[in-house]
Specification:
The chain is mainly α. The protein contains four helices and no strands. Helix 1 crosses helix 2 and helix 1 packs across helix 3.
Amino acid sequence: MTWRDQIRPIVAAIISEAKRQGLDLKQTRRALRDNKPGWVGTEHWPYKVWCSECRIQLGLRPKLWAKELRAERVSPDQLPLDFE
């Protein structure tokens, strides 16, 4: 499971809750910032994926950059991430 696979449903849930409450874009972005899981942090790759996924799901960037696509290819030797 990649970082994006873990982050995608969290971002989707926050955005759907914001839409249900009738929040505008600025308020939705604030909700995303305030409800970010602690394990994402504010630096390194998980945070970049969080920011990228927020922009993608909000429609602020239509597609992934090629650099991100290359970086997210999973190596067969990579170990899974378990945070539970």
